[in-house]
Write a structure and sequence with these properties.
203 residues, alpha+beta, OB fold (Dihydrolipoamide Acetyltransferase, E2P), 5-stranded mixed beta barrel, 6 helices, 5 strands
């Protein structure tokens, strides 16, 4: 049945269906890879939305989504154009008008996706700013030993906004062993903090 339907199509419709299905498949793959990259952590899935969007994969996806001339937007245009032309071909008898309507819908889809990524970028920046404000002064526990005098990175677990989060950590003082109680002195980057032992704090 599918074979007979395909044979009955004109060359133009076969090309249109081919481009549309290819764009749809690529769109699905891109979406899956984007969300996998955004949620990927150190071997597990991070359920924290802000932490997920601090990853390099999410940064690349957002940056690509906000640029006009990208492969992603090329795919989005043909996704909107192709499906519009296919769904409206029986309702719009004028081929030039059909092409114009489909092109407008394709451009609108590109604009919508770009706006979505711009919105996500704004949320990411807001999340980073909140992290810088919220983490300083927080107490936590060393999860992986932190080498002394910034000789390398360890890991700490902090309780921020009633949620336990894990960050890379460095210290200016002596080596901090696993289980040591610490305080965040400074946020160096979205995933790295400078800490000191609680014992060094003079009350």
């Amino acid at each position: 049945m599918i074979t007979s339907w395909w044979v009955s199509l004109s060359l133009a419709m076969k090309i249109l269906w081919g481009v549309t299905l290819a764009a749809s498949l690529i769109f699905i793959i891109q979406s899956i890879l984007t969300f996998i990259g955004a949620d990927g952590g150190d071997g597990g899935i991070d359920t924290d939305f802000d932490a997920g969007f601090d990853s390099e994969a999410a940064d690349a996806a957002v940056e690509g989504g906000t640029n006009l001339y990208t492969f992603r937007n090329f795919v989005n245009f043909f996704l909107g154009f192709g499906w519009s032309a296919i769904l409206l071909q029986d309702k719009v008898t004028s081929v030039p008008l059909l092409l114009v309507i489909s092109a407008v819908i394709g451009v609108a889809l590109v604009a919508l996706v770009m706006y979505l990524f711009k919105w996500l970028s704004g949320m990411q920046q807001t999340g980073n700013i909140n992290l810088f404000k919220a983490a300083v002064g927080c107490n936590g526990t060393v999860y992986l030993t932190i080498p002394g005098e910034r000789g390398g990175e360890g890991k700490v677990q902090l309780s921020i906004n009633n949620s336990v989060r894990e960050y890379n950590a460095v210290t200016d003082g002596e080596t901090l062993r696993t289980g040591s109680q610490i305080r965040v002195v400074e946020v160096i980057s979205p995933d790295t903090v400078l800490v000191e032992p609680l014992e060094s704090i003079i009350i």
